[in-house]
Amino acid sequence: MEKRFVRGSEEMSKKSRYTLEEAVTVLKYSVAPIASWPLPIDEKPSVVLMTKIWWWVAIIHLSVSIFAWFYNIYQNRSDIDVVIRITSELLGVASVIVKMLTVRLEHTRLQGLVGEMHSFLRTGTPEELDLIQRYVDERIVSHATIFICTVLGPLAFIVGPAVVAQPLPLDAAYPFSMETTWIWATVYLSQTIIAIQIGCMAQLNFLYTVLLWFTGARLEMLSTEYLDAVDEENFKRCIKKHQELIEYFHRVKGTTRSIAPHAFSIAIFAVTCGGFIIMRNPSLYVAAKYFLFVAIAGMQLFLFTWPADNLTVMGKRVGDSAYGCAWVGKSQGMLKDLTIVLGRCKNPLIIAVRGVFPALSLEVFGGAVAASFSYLTTLRALAEGL
């Protein structure tokens, strides 16, 4: 009776797990306001058409609205505190446009990568799927926390008029009167949509995070398979899978390199501007609002560096596992294959962008945070000297 109860509890625990498929579904719908999720190749034509129409509506709306922030900067150009606050929001709006365009250009590659991931989740062995689930279980709390922050951040701006004496959620100015109710309501709705889209821009980074974690998990599986390879046939099977994984990694690397510098720049610039606003003794609401702003900006880069760092480690582990397999006394063919694998593993699986960072890693994240505080100190000194 007791054993049956324990077994039943374990089954309920497994059923209550948050799976990768569920996480991807949540992400897909969370970025719907910017219409930037790579649709499946076999998606319905009507869905593809509606997504394209909404993408164009969103990009035009953002591109036209951004001039309101430039106009406000011009009006307050003599007040550095106000200019920095406006610039921080302008950065968010511009980032949405840049990321939407970048993901649009990378749509075909992302579509293939996501499609292959879904195919693997449908056809993977129980052992492979268990390892994927372990990755999800170990990281769900930290990633869910970051995701919640990307929701709370825009919400903190949207409710601004209900908390402090300001007519609109964001610091934009318009060359027309806001006294007419329908004009005010229209602008308020426009800014609310923009604030939500800024949050979606941050949530879109989870797409790359998932692809990086997924690649790292498959490399970890491969390292186990190399260790278990006891004959030439199994070893050749591992080599074939290794080559496929390297090709998959290079495709992930290509699309990540197109977006990672954006996250790197955002992290430095946003932490600098947001930190400056917090240090100027604002109200509690403004301080809390920009604390979330700074945290989300830093987390964007963290979402790239952590899984990329893990991927590099797993790439090295594959080489160690191949060398640790039972190759002693085996055929010359297997020894030749082992030499090829070890030579292949000499090239680390890193994501680098020339002139920006040598390798996407936790060290880069620490360097970006340090640089942000350095720029913040310089900006503060400059402001005090004015």
Tell me about this structure.
With 386 residues, the chain is mainly α. It has 14 helices and no strands. It has helices spanning 2-15, 20-30, 45-65, 67-75, 80-105, 107-123, 126-158, 160-163, 181-203, 205-228, 232-279, 284-323, 332-345, 362-385. Helix 10 (205-228) runs antiparallel to helix 11. The longest helix is centred in the middle third of the chain and has 48 residues, at 232-279. The chain starts with a helix and ends with a helix. Residues 1-13 have low confidence and may be disordered.
Gist?
By secondary structure, the protein is mostly helical. It is built from 14 helices and no strands.
List keywords for this structure.
386 residues; single chain; mainly alpha; disordered N terminus
Multimerization state: single chain
Computed over alpha carbons, the radius of gyration is: 24 Å
**End-to-end distance, in Å?**
77 Å
Structural class: mainly alpha
Number of helices: 14
- How much beta, percentage-wise? under 5%
Estimated helix fraction: over 70%
What is the total tally of β strands? 0
Taken from the alpha-carbon principal axes, the silhouette is: elongated
Order of helices and strands: HHHHHHHHHHHHHH
Global mean pLDDT: 86
